[in-house]
Design goal:
By secondary structure, the protein is of the alpha/beta class. 38% of the residues lie in helices and 23% in strands. The protein has a five-stranded parallel β-sheet, sandwiched between helices.
Length: 125
């Protein structure tokens, strides 16, 4: 099943990436898919964003300043279980925490589109 643009416009995405270029790229790819995107450079800032935006998807880099992506993914699962976690990293996929999907770097728009396939707000198909 392909998710239509109308449905994607309702998907809220939180990008947590400390690399400015990579953060911009991820944000732009999700925006091109008509998602509502918020981006932050740390897990600590992202936790504040959760209260304001209640994202459906959190795209998390694993190597972050302060709280790392593994700990942040666990925090999301515990505190915001309806949010889908997507890991974006250059590290070996075997080291990723359990997640809905992986966006291995380098990230492409096609990879973002695959993550969104079959996804509706609040639910992974």
């Amino acid at each position: 099943m392909t998710v239509t643009s109308d449905v994607r416009a309702n998907i809220k995405v939180l990008v947590v990436e400390d690399g400015e270029d990579q953060r911009f790229l991820l944000q732009r790819y999700f925006e091109l898919e008509d998602c509502d995107v918020t981006s932050t450079d740390s897990a600590e800032t992202a936790m504040k964003a959760f209260a304001e935006s209640a994202p459906d998807i959190a795209v998390i880099d694993l190597v972050l300043p302060g709280m790392n992506g593994w700990d942040f993914a666990a925090q999301i699962e515990k505190v915001w279980p309806s949010c889908v976690v997507v890991i974006s990293s250059v590290l070996d996929v075997d080291s990723y925490p359990v997640a809905y999907a992986q966006l291995t770097k380098p990230v492409t728009r096609a990879k973002v589109q695959r993550v969104l396939e079959g996804f509706g707000p609040g639910r992974a198909a």
